[in-house]
Amino acid sequence: MSRHFSRAALAAVGALVALAVQPAAAQQASQIWTYWGSGAELAAIQSVIDLNNKAHADTPVEHVVIPGNTVELRRQLQTALLGGTPPAAYQSAMGYEIKTFVDAGQLRPIADVWNKVKGDEIFPTGLQRVMKVDGEPYAIPLNMHVISNIFYNKAIFEKYQITPPTTMAELAAVCEKLEAEKIGCLANGGGYFWSLYNFYAPLVSVVGVDGYFQIARGEMSFTDPKFKQALELYRDTYVKHYLANWSGKTWAQGGDDVFAGRAAMMQIGDWVSGYLKDLGFKPGEDYDYFPAPGVGKAVLIQVDAIATPNGSETSNAAADNFLTTAASPEAQGAFNLHKGSIAANLKTDPSIYDYIGQKTYATMQAAESDNAVLPNLFFLLPTELGSEFGAQIERFAIDPSDETLASVVEKLESVRVELVDQGAFVTW
Amino acid sequence: MAKEKPAPYERGIWVVYLLFLALPVAFFLVFYVYPVIDTVLTSFQRWNGLSPRRVDVGWRNYLALFDDGRFWNSLLNNVRWLVFYLFVPNAVGLGLALLLDRMTKGQSFFKIIYFLPYTIPPVAVAAIWRWLYEPNAGLLTSTLSAVGLGALAPNWLGDPAISTYSVMGAALWWSVGFSFIVYYAGLKNLPQECIEAARIDGANAWQAFWKVTFPLLWPSTAIALGMSSVDAMRLFDIVWAMTGGGPAYSSDVLATQMYDVAFGRLNMGEASAIAVCLLVAAAIVVMPFIVFMSRRVARGVE
Amino acid sequence: MSSRLSHIAVRSPRYAAAAVIALLFVVPILVALNTSLKTPAEIVDVFALPSAPQLENYRIAWAQIGRSFLNSAAITIPGVMFSVAIGAVAAFPLAQMKGRANRVIYFILLTGMLVPYQIVQIPLFSLMRQLGLYNTIPGMWLVHAAYGVPICTFFMRNFFASVPRSLFEAALLDGCGPARYFFSVLLPASTSGLSALAIIQSRAIWNDLLFAMTLTNSQDARPVTVELSALTSSLQIQYGPLMAATLLSIVPVVVAYLLFQKAFVRGMLGGSSK
């Protein structure tokens, strides 16, 4: 009995070994790594890959999903880069993340591809800055998500005869009116990002676009009274009117709140538009957006881009072809049709956009002509400060007391000083 | 009797033993000792994990760490988890074991149910409990609302004051199974005569338990406490998956802070410093258990 | 008759308590099950039952994590065998030898239990790269065998210590060397211990997240836990498919537990029960 069992066990092990060893040999195609593992995002990247493989059949690429989010992807990349097995290309954030990899000597400059696709012409200026390090381009942007818009539930606005506010004071007044009617004003989600993104509007309204970039360069101290003023403005306009228990929710649950009418508005990236559509809302009829008061003509964007590490000749060639495809209007159109964002290539056919997209696209063009497309500050700052910034703003949003404010300022300033010491800041 | 073995043969036995130990010890050196040394060295450097350049910074990482409120909060949380893990799942497990001990029928069924959560991967536990803790639609809040106590429902995972305790709730559900099984088997192996003798002597159930049963359960308790202390220091999966250490670092433990600093902040030097501190803390906490385990069996052999 | 009734009367509060607690234990799983069968819009009301059970969530979940079950199995089964083997190999001399060296080596191997695995993450991946074993399933076997040394050694040492020494001495007198004794006498006599250790190791290896996250990066090698973790940490969490995936991931270990309960219990006790 036991002899049969051990024979069976050995056979099973043998089979598993055969199974395990085999697929390792089959990884010949060049890989594109992203964390877009499901739903619309997956469809989006896959459409670009399909277009590429048709146009460049001699250098096919395949999509590899790295589960998780930016941190996980970065970690796997780190492993791969140090281990000498990098992908041909990967999904990159903008700005400082690119710089980190460039400084480590890990990324290939793509000036050839950039010039071929006329990157300086087709991408907004603000966007170009964060694709380049020291003037050299290293990544091709796929899209722009606008993060300075406030989405709202139209039914609630109509019921209480509210018109979209245009100043901070008006926003606060709208919130008070809604709360008097027992409706939550602003939904929000927990995590490093969302409260920080909300904070940008009061910040820009106090320090202006110049101040925004001063912070990005590490030139403005966090102890500056204007920064404190911005925090207080954030507290009085936003934090006071967040829906209860927001910190325990994901951004999608915040979206649920708007959908269900528990909150009237939410300032979040335009990916919420796709989410609301999934729930059953119709853009323009059930929900709409207005730009966050305080940002003025500016538009704050978040970008997904493709960068390429140093690799073998085959993979470099495949990557270059992929980047060229990715910059083309067709690919950008296909990608953003699924993803719901705005194509980075402004020459993309705007008919792919729905009502929300069209509106955003028009605003984007207006902002671009004013040179007011602002990249997300989180990615302009050195990684450590960006993450700390997000965590501290969330902390302040949970407990907006004066002690917390003082402690937030102190902590951020100490990190900033340390990083200035190290020469970590970049002029974008 | 054994001492009468001829000398050459004895030396031969030793060689065989050393050969047996060669591979495990080699593994240990390569996979435990080398990485720990590497981590200690990195803790004195500044490195972002990507560039081939590393800069020596001496004790800077440690000084920055000790200055950082987040570090002390993480350490405090590990202490909280230690206290929690030592007492709560073990007490509940013991209680359940006592509950089932006297049953004659249906034990198997209950045993399966109580142990089941322990088989689930921590990631899955975190996924389920995050859903239960959801402030609007989650089970806990909905249940409280249904009985009219909705106003009492806190922001389970979003309120910094209670986030750690909420995660502990999930951990309790998950890990009771272990101490339950350990105590259940321990109870089954108890010599009944001692307990009955105590009863005959007039002790009531409570006294019989504390003076006789519980002391006799010492081997089970030792295992339960020891594994609890190891788990408390190693804690990562369930916290990371439920809250990521937040909000605002409130539920951070040393392992999650280390992970965040290493890969979220790209600061390998400081992360290594955290790792070293974690190792020291774990050594202090778990060492008594290891000493106990290594001595106990040694006594058995000799 | 009355004693029987009073017997039941004494027992029933015990049963009632046990039943209530069992219900509390099972509720989270039931909620997960309920959620996994709902459409996104229905999920919002946690008490409601789904109007029409949606298997769509399971289809989506399976598409995401289905392949990884194979990987988990390919990693776990040989991984268990190797780590149990290493534990037995290390435990044999430690159970037989006398003297301080024995205790010291045993103690040192046990200190491995102190080391939180996150510490070894970064050096480990460069090590695995150098060995050419990054993102391979055999690499995972090596890692699990190596990191199982403390617990497996501890376990088998306990078990071997309960084997009578006379057995060994009889073998020696018969001219059997220790190696032959180990393979021909001790191991066959230890199947209950080995299987108990195998069962708890299989739980540990199947549920491992950290090593898999660090050392795998493609569908060819990623186990279930990593895929599940991806679903939980993505920026948009869809609870329906997530609950479906969670339930699917639970099934193998639960089934293993149900089939091998006795071995599980013996495993939990550290190998020292008779």
What this model shows, in words?
The complex is a heterotrimer of chains A (428), B (302) and C (274). Chain A has 428 residues and is an alpha/beta fold. Chain A is built from 19 helices and 13 strands. In chain A, strand 4 and strand 5 form a beta hairpin. Chain A is globular, with a radius of gyration of 23 Å. The model of chain A is unreliable at 22-27 (pLDDT under 50). Chain B is mainly alpha-helical and 302 residues long. Chain B has a single domain (69-253, 275-301), classed as MetI-like (MetI-like fold), CATH 1.10.3720. In chain B, 74% of the residues lie in helices and 1% in strands. Chain B has 13 helices and two strands, in the order H-E-E-H-H-H-H-H-H-H-H-H-H-H-H. In chain B, strands 1-2 form a two-stranded antiparallel ribbon. The two termini of chain B are 14 Å apart. With 274 residues, chain C is an all-alpha fold. Chain C has two domains: 1-54, no CATH class; 65-268, MetI-like fold, CATH 1.10.3720. Chain C is built from 13 helices and no strands. The longest helix of chain C has 41 residues, at 56-96. Chain C is globular.
Task: Name the descriptors.
A: 428 residues; alpha/beta; D-Maltodextrin-Binding Protein, domain 2; 2 domains; 4-stranded mixed beta sheet; 19 helices; 13 strands; C: 274 residues; mainly alpha; MetI-like fold
Q: Could you give the order of the helices and strands of chain B?
A: HEEHHHHHHHHHHHH
What's the count of strands of chain B? 2
The greatest interface here is: B-C, 101 and 103 residues
Largest β sheet strand count, sense and barrel closure of chain B: 2 strands, antiparallel
Average residue-wise pLDDT of chain B: 84
**What is the number of beta strands of chain C?**
0
Order of helices and strands of chain C: HHHHHHHHHHHHH
Choose one word for the global shape of chain C: globular
CA-to-CA gap between the ends of chain B? 14 Å
Secondary structural class of chain B: mainly alpha
Provide the β-strand percentage band of chain B.
under 5%
Briefly, what CATH class of chain B? Mainly Alpha
Label the CATH architecture of chain B.
Orthogonal Bundle
Going by helix content, strand content and strand pairing, the class of chain C is mainly alpha
CATH superfamily placement of chain B? MetI-like
The unreliable regions of chain B are 1-8, 298-302
Share of helical residues of chain B: over 70%
Distance between the termini of chain C: 40 Å
Oligomer: heterotrimer
CATH topology of the largest domain in chain C: MetI-like fold
